[in-house]
Predict the structure.
Amino acid sequence: MIERTLALQTITFENGNRAKAVTVSPEEIGDVILDALGIPKPKSLISIIGGAGGIDQMDDASRSHLVQLISRGVARAAIEVGAAVIDGGTQSGVMAMIGQGVADRGRRTSLVGVAPRGKVTFPGGPAAGSIADGAPLDPNHSHFVLVESAEWGGEVETLGAVAKALSREVPDLTILVNGGETAKVELLNAVRNRWAILLLEGSGRLADEIAGLKKNYDAARKARSQPSGAKTELPFIQDPVLAEIVEDGEIHLFSVNGSPAELQLVVTRLLGGGDTLQLAWERFALYDHNAKNQQRFFFRVQDWILRLGVIATLLALIQNTIKTSVQLAAFMPLVEPLRAIIIIAPITLATLIAVSSKFNYGSKYILLRAAAESIKGQIFSYRARAAQYSDLRVTAATREMILEQKAESISRELMQSEVKDSALKTYKGPVPPLMFAAEAPDDGYSFLSPERYIEVRLGDQIRFHTRKVERLSRQLHRTQWAIYLFGGLGTFLAAIGLELWIAGTISLVGALTTYLQYQQVEFTLSRNNQTLAELGNLQAWWSALMTEEQAKQENIDRLVDTTERVLDEQSAAWVGKMRDALAELRKQQEKDREKYVADAKREGKSILGGR
């Protein structure tokens, strides 16, 4: 690959703003342009299209209201979510409005304008009024990409390339205000890139045309989803571009008569900002982080209990062998130190068992893991806008309320369990946290089309369970082989007259059996295999559907509902089995603790008696 360096220039406007600009060919790569301009990576991207000549023809009252929507709604939202803004870059219509809005708020947002160089004027370039049908660059933008073209529309391909590079792995929202043929092409590009679209309904021309088509299409689709409306025909849209936009796009409507605060909230939420989804991810991260901590403590304590139990048994056997064997008389000085260790070992074991029982690391780990997975399931259903979160069933506000209620209910139930006796450690990492097997790039906030849901949720879980099944299978086979080998070793020791050492092999077999019990390897392997099979069947079912069937909301609901139900049932079964296993383990260890205490007392009295 040949590296290219684009010539960077600085445009100084009369208001003192200094903007960076590059001139590029229409085929230039977006990443190369961004490298030349040095635009910092945004947390999200807002693309504003349309709204040039048509906006200038609005009456003063409507235009004044639109200015407030863009300045106080969109510009504020951009700052709140750390978004960059990209538009046509000229000092006209909505582009001038967003420029002034960003400037009024201290220019804290990267504002990128993409325009045909042969149609714009700017200080240090073509003089104002020198180009027929030309327009001046907006003096409040921070960056410009000037495409080598003498026609309006010659910049569209480059604008799309820059937007795609800026929005890589972050949420993108395309806002359409008014608009004409050029905006239609840009909107189609947004649909094909699976970006969310917000139409300012009432702003005229293309925005109003698409809003009307969208309402009719959604009404017919909703009627079709009802049992009595199975034969309802979807409206036919003659224009193929509009048909693809309406039928495939994630389109949201906002009335130009709404308030700036309402628009700010809508933009923020569509870009994954706002409190609800953020708080849900924060709850997941907190429970996930603490589940891992509790799991680590639980396994560490259990491993030491098993190891010390085996070590104590082996030390006792060594001591007895030395005391009873004439050939080992030279090692008699080791008997007393071994006796001291043999006393300490059961005391330590009893202490570890008491600690494990008191702090319930195992139960807390299970409950925290279940709560984290439940919240994650709600998050993905919410982002997919499916089932109870479907656009056809609830409003955006109701959807937010449902997610908050679900997350709150899960948290309340968790805090009524033994977890309430622990101080949860603060999570300080990224939100959402990095998750095992999550190979598909995902920002955690943007809307998930069925294809994206399969990629980042269903596909992710298939990969996760595939790897877990492979790991558990190896773990089970190795442990079972070790149990059989130690069992065979015990038989061999009996055959050669070393019956005393059979206790050592029994101790090792018991430790390995207990390990399989508290890990629930066999059950977890079986459940994960079942889950993997169900998820694979679901993926195959979806792939077999015709394109028009995949577009039906009832099938999208089934995809998301079934995926989350399968995962929820797997989690519930695992939780139930693990809690039963831990209860049995706790009973057995309590008996062992009493035995260890008695052994320590007996050895101590033996020492005193010997004196």
Summary: The chain has 18 helices and eleven strands. The chain has two domains: 8-273, 276-610. Residues 276-610 form one domain. Residues 553-610 form the longest helix (58 residues).
